[in-house]
# Entry
Amino acid sequence: MITEADETLLRRAVAIAAHAVTLGDAPYGSLLAGPDGGIIAEAHNTVRRDDDITAHPELKLARWAARELDPDTAARTTMYTSCQPCGMCHGGIVRSGIGRVVYALSTEQLVALNPPSGAWPQVPQDGPALHEEARLPIETYYPPST
# Structure
């Protein structure tokens, strides 16, 4: 359920995206609101500027949260973002412990506005393979519980 306070913070994320365009960057913006609802960090997409395919604002904020927030605070933090996080960013958000995401445009809406944004081909994957060999470093790091 999206509240009036959520809409206010979401509008800020959209404004960050609009400002990114004025800087020559892609139109994506995000922010983190702490447990009290105050903004604690903001970012915009700098993929082209940084020549870094991972420089999405959601992933930059997830990395920041993982470094700077204790797990309890992260769990009570909300990310507001102009577009629904991609798979890469979603994975980072999950690993960071951020508790909630609120987005303005869905992936489907983004693709309708910018069809090439959703035209990523599927990369073929083969596996699993070498289970007995691959499990050894995992079991060394995470010993089976007895």
Summary: The longest strand covers residues 39-44. The helical segments are 4-22, 47-50, 57-68, 71-75, 87-96, 107-113, 131-141.
